[in-house]
Specification:
The chain is mostly helical. The protein is built from 2 helices and no strands. The chain has one domain. Helix content is 94%, strand content 0%.
Length: 80
């Protein structure tokens, strides 16, 4: 329990320090921080979209394989 509390306190302290440093920085430095955050957000969204597209492709391949197997089984049953 103590480790979690200390970790949360450390995280809170880092957040407060980052906020203080941001508020006391120049407008150019603040814009640079905003640009970095926006770039990271865009990269994260791109990665998420790529992952979603790949998952859709795999799901489609599995569906096609399942349909092919189902057709093969039905053909085998009908021939018997």
């Amino acid at each position: 329990m103590s480790t979690k509390r200390n970790g949360l306190l450390a995280l809170l302290g880092l957040g407060a320090l980052a906020w203080w440093k941001y508020k006391n920085s120049t407008p150019e430095e603040q814009q640079a921080v905003k640009d970095k955050i926006n770039t990271a957000k865009d990269n994260f969204n791109k990665w998420g979209n790529d992952l979603k597209n790949k998952a859709s492709e795999v799901a489609q391949q599995v569906q096609e394989k399942m349909d092919h197997t189902k057709t093969s089984v039905e053909d085998s049953v009908n021939q018997s």
